[in-house]
# Entry
Amino acid sequence: MSALGGWMAVAAAIPTVWFLSRQVRDAEKQHRTTVSIQTRPTYMLAKKAAETSANIRVQCEETLGLWQVAKLPLTPSSLGYAIERLKFLHGLVDRTEFVRVQTEIEFTHMRHEQLISSIEEATRGVERDLEEINIERVPIAREAVVGSHKNAVMYLQQVHDVCNSYISDFERITEHLR
# Structure
């Protein structure tokens, strides 16, 4: 009789184990769905920032290539052109999504505010030279444009890498939803 009771216990345990494993799978799926819903805005931010940083980086690399070989004449208009390029760069990289990447995803090695501050300082320096009509400083203005673009390229690559890492982690964690 006791042997029969043991077999009956095994027979009762098999459906219980199967039922519990199914509950665990369902709970895991529900958790992934919840995580996906809660973090979707951050995921979309990462997608947008990665794409935007890649596009802006390409523009910056093109400008950098041109300015590295540029032979600017020693004229006030060269200083004005340098100011124009620096202000344009500032407008490209001063984006809310890049600030949000730092607060919602991960810090980059170069902080957004550091990049913006360096571009603004370079712009002020060239503007002072233009006000003083100090055309001997055109090569320094050229270097300000080149240096600012190098910093921007480096920063944008960091943003792109941080965002792609987040995207990869998000997709790995929520893989059943794809």
In short: Residues 2-69 form the longest helix (68 residues). The radius of gyration is 28 Å. The chain has five helices and no strands. Helices lie at 2-69, 76-93, 96-104, 112-131, 138-173.
